[in-house]
Amino acid sequence: MAAPRPRIRAVRRGLLLLFLLVPLIYSGTDLSFLSSNFPLTMRTPLPPPLTIQSAPVSRLHPWVPEKGVCLPPPTAPKRPDRLVLGPAAGQGRPDRLQCQGLRALNKIGLSSEEIYSGEHISFVTVFTTYNSVSAGDGNVPSDSVTVGNHSYSKIERSMAILNTFISFIKVSMPRSNVIILTDPGSKISVNQGSATLLPIEGNYSRGNLMLQRIQTYIVRVESFFLTDSDIAVVDDLGHIFKKYPHCHLALTFRNNKGQPLNSGFVAVRGTRDGITKAVEFLKQVLGAYSSRYIKASRMLGDQLALAWVVKSHLPSAFGKFSKHEAFTGEVNGASVLFLPCAVYNWTPPEGAGQFHGIPLDVKVVHFKGSRKRLMLEAWNFYNSTSKLSDMLCLILRSGRTKYDF
């Protein structure tokens, strides 16, 4: 909630008076540092607006240590390196997962007549590794983390996340294929027979990876779900193409004004027309990315470009994002299916916020940001129980925590 206007006006008059009284001391006071700490576009929710109260003017200046005094930079709070459980959101709502501790009182999943049994579906993700220093010399690296009974170096935990991504798909959609698009120079090893590695030349540097992902998708598009590798598929997705037979591709939306479309899940119909339309659509996104949002190439640029293309051709779609219901629309000749993130791209931190728990028909869980530890912990929990619904209770109770990775 914005600060009361009278209070802000009073402070500004006070500042003006002080400027008049002591121009030699406080002339040129710059308050821009107050707003520069709060960028307009962020992945995490904005902090509460700053309320300026009557205070000495000196408190409004950025603090600078005395000359010659060396102080260490402030350290960020240490994030948890083990599971943290809290209350489960959505309790008491009949359309949400109900949990008693880590036991689900109701079950997720499609009814038997909705389960898709048609053509094979492929999942495609872009993946590469960085800082590939081997930890095989017997020494524990400084970036080592422990999850369950396993310790991982930074590169090993990246590979563990990739293999967990594949494992979830094999549980929920065992007949589907997994294709990993990667830098030809990457040293990636996946469980034999579980996925296909497809090297494609490109710039896979950290700052260019999101841009490279779109370029790589254009090179290799068939009947695919194009996804991030930090998702867990917890139910069959093939029904999308059966239930919506005329769509060329599908995107996921959320009620988020800054980033209403998430690029971590894109479905493409495997017909000639569907592939052609999807490639043309992705080329438009790539063009917007390169020309408008290249400064955000490391983060958010793909989502901003995606939203810009949709808004340019179908502005009416943005008025429907708050309803959490699937709908279709035409974007420059392509029939686009818009699916709610609450079901097809559910994110743990939002589960206790705007999504109010886990819907019973949830299909995909997306471990965005610092929740990769939770992804590995969830898979370990599923391995010990073989119950996806119970595993979702663990995710629901733990997902609001930001972990060490």
From TrEMBL:
- Keyword tRNA processing belongs to the record: no
Task: Extract the InterPro entries matched here.
Answer: Nucleotide-diphossugar_trans (IPR029044)
Signal peptide range: 1-27
The reply to whether rRNA processing figures as a keyword in the UniProt entry is no
Q: Which Gene3D superfamilies match?
A: Spore Coat Polysaccharide Biosynthesis Protein SpsA, Chain A
For this UniProt record, the keywords arranged alphabetically read as follows:
Signal
Protein name stated in the entry: Nucleotide-diphospho-sugar transferase domain-containing protein
Please give the organism: Sorghum bicolor (Sorghum)
